Amino acid sequence: MANAHAVAAVTESRASEYQALLEVSESIALHRDLDALFHDLAGRLHPIIEFDFLSLVLHDDARDVMRLHILETELETDIHTGKETPVEKSLGGQVWKTQQPLVIDDVESETRFPEMMEMLRQRNIRSVCTLPLTTAQRRLGGMGVGSIEPHAYSPGDVEFLTRVARQVAVAVDNALNAQAAQSYQTELARERDRLRLLLDVNDAIASKVSKKELFTAISAGLRRLLNIDYTGLAVYDAKTTRLRVYALDFPENQNMILEHAEIPLEDSPPGQAFTTRKPVMLDPSNLDRFNSDGFRRMVANGLRAGCVLPLISRDRVLGTLNVGTRRETSFTADDVDLLTQVANQIATAVENALAFSEIEDLKEQLAQEKLYLEDEIRTEHNFEEIVGDSPVLKRVLRQIETVAPTDAAVLIEGETGTGKEVFARSIHNLSRRRDRTFVKINCAAIPAGLLESELFGHEKGAFTGALAQRAGRFELAHRGTLFLDEVGDIPLELQPKLLRALQEQEFERLGSTRTLRVDVRVIAATNRNLAQMVAEGQFRGDLYYRLNVFPLEAPPLRERREDIPQLVRYFIQKYALRLERNIETVPAEAQRALADYAWPGNIRELENFIERAVILSRGPVLNVSISDLRPHSDTPANNAATLEAAERDHILRVLAETNWMVGGPGGAAARLGLKRTTLQSKMKKLGISRT
User: Fold this and answer.
1) What are phi and psi of 51, to 5 degrees?
2) Over 50: is that where the pLDDT of 502 sits?
3) How many Cα atoms are found within 13 Å in the side-chain-facing hemisphere of 540?
4) Would you state the pLDDT for residue 374?
5) C-alpha dist (Å) from residue 222 to 206, 260, 288, 318
6) Does 117 or 7 have the greater pLDDT score?
């Protein structure tokens, strides 16, 4: 009978342990926070194991110490989390090294770990059990329990706690990985914000004409990122041998500092930075180093920390960038590095500004240099670089306005040089994705073997030469627009993967099994007849229908002749400014010739022709080589065959002038405004070959 009772007791104990292990698993599933997890574990384990504290000690790889992360106890203690102990002096360090449980039955008689034993004795702890926390990937540290009773932990208890520790190790590892990922994400966000600030500063310098606008834009970015209260710019005045406040952003200034106020080079932070060419750091410990009146007023009104950086351009010190805060803190080395980069950019702007007596004069001067035709190059729709107001163009623009707000796929078809990319950008800019990235890829310009990697990215080692992981264009276009130019040149074997990416918005990088999901709107363009290619088996029908949700036809220039005068004026303005020409008129005969020409290369050919004419012009009249233009009439007799013959004659003439050199900067393709492959295709179609 006694044996039966003993067996029943053991069975009941085992059942309790299994139940506790199930509850441990449940607790791990419920809690992602380690503090909450260990607090819950303490309550669930107490009915099975007697203990007065439960601890988590982890190894710090960088410092090679054991750090106390969690201490769950109801005893009064002055031990706080974060306490660090050398590995060889720590119970957790011992199990971390040996990977074996460590049981101390009586602290009073234990001679190892003298410092640790003394600490336990002072807190009336008599017995301890420490278990290693280890996963398949790494050793983490140890989980410990302790009791005020000696000999509190039997071999059965150790076996049970070992099972618990295995589960806890996985939870701890997951939590540490999540913390590391969060920390990495935070660091990435911080780096992104810093890079964005530098880009904003660069944009501000490029676009702001007024010094006030320029500095307000820069200081707003600095205030947002570094939480500063004061930003000032001082420029050296050679006449007074002092620094003069050039711009100021100090919302709570209360007239402490005024623009154009002078700062002495002696006994002032800006003066020291200007003289030494090195940053000057200010914090609560050194604010009494400088005694200039302006600086003392700032300190009296709450300045607690600051950084002053010299503005250096072409080895010349122009002035200083000064930032300050009312917080009792100090600027980090990363902050100084960022401010140094900003100061270098500002130095360039200051140097440019000092080259003119007034920035406003420069603005007026630039305005006077613009051609008077500037206001005439925009359509009533204001579609950026889309120039013209012909009926056929207006019809296309209305279609763009209709489809842009949706996320529908758009297929833009049309001859080469008709501005398909400009139409695609207009769709993007009118869509809800306008603030995200517009990513383009020319499918014909990338070798077939590399196109998959360009579209979908690859992992390190995915193929020879893949030395690092790389994101593809689909990832770069997440939440934005992907423009697939020359989509008809995508190889057949790659088309199923592209179709899946379009339909499911998911794909895998080359060399990876992990599926990536994106939110991308696709706009495709081609100068080929995709429907015919589908019929001939050169293009997948399902991919064609997926791309052709909203077809758009880019009209050739010969169908919108009314736009040619506006386009001519637009390109004259563009290249006259770039080439520093002053062109005011276009001869009437040249205007007629430009309007009557067939333009087989469309707008691209027209643009190249006007650029060449601007280069050749030496006066205010555009120098147009009318002999290069063959008149074209829109009479019924002038059918497709006549147009084809005119195109053939024009290509032959240009080939003869270039000595039959098709590609290259001076080749026929460049002169015609065509891609080399497009010209070769036209030559084959028209039966042109060198005899």
Assistant:
1) -155, 155
2) yes
3) 16
4) 36
5) 18, 22, 26, 21
6) 117
Residue type, 117: M
Residue (of 317, 380, 375) closest to 350 by Cα position: 317
- Return all residues near 78 (Cβ < 8 A) that are at least 6 apart: none
Count Cβ atoms within 10 A of the Cβ of residue 422 and give its class: 0-12 exposed, 13-18 middle, 19 or more buried. Answer: middle
Q: According to the model, what pLDDT value does residue 37 have?
A: 82
- Edge to edge, the sheet with strand 65-73 lists 84-86, 65-73, 53-60, 139-147, 127-134, 102-104
Residues β-bridged to residue 305:
325
What's the chain's length in residues?
Answer: 691
For residue 677, give every residue at least 6 positions away whose Cβ sits within 8 Å of its Cβ, in sequence order, or none: 444
**Which domains does the chain carry?**
2-179 (3.30.450.40), 208-360 (3.30.450.40), 391-557 (3.40.50.300), 558-686 (1.10.8.60)
Three-state secondary-structure class, residue 126 = coil
Sheet holding 242-249, edge to edge: 262-263, 242-249, 230-237, 316-325, 305-313, 280-282
SS3 label, residue 537: coil
- The angle formed by the CA atoms of residues 438, 441 and 446, to the nearest 5 degrees, is 165
- Which tokens belong to 384? 């950026």
Chain mean pLDDT for the chain:
81
Dihedral pair phi/psi, residue 214, rounded to 5°: -60, -50
Report the C-alpha gap between 35 and 26 in whole angstroms: 16
Query: What pTM was estimated for this model as a whole?
Result: 0.41
pLDDT digits (tens, 9 = 90+) for 273-314: 999 999 998 888 888 888 888 888 888 878 888 889 898 888
| pLDDT tens digits, 652-670 | 888 887 888 888 777 888 8
Q: How confident is the model at residue 534 (pLDDT cuts 50, 70, 90)?
A: very high
Number of alpha helices (DSSP H) and beta strands (DSSP E) in the chain: 23, 19
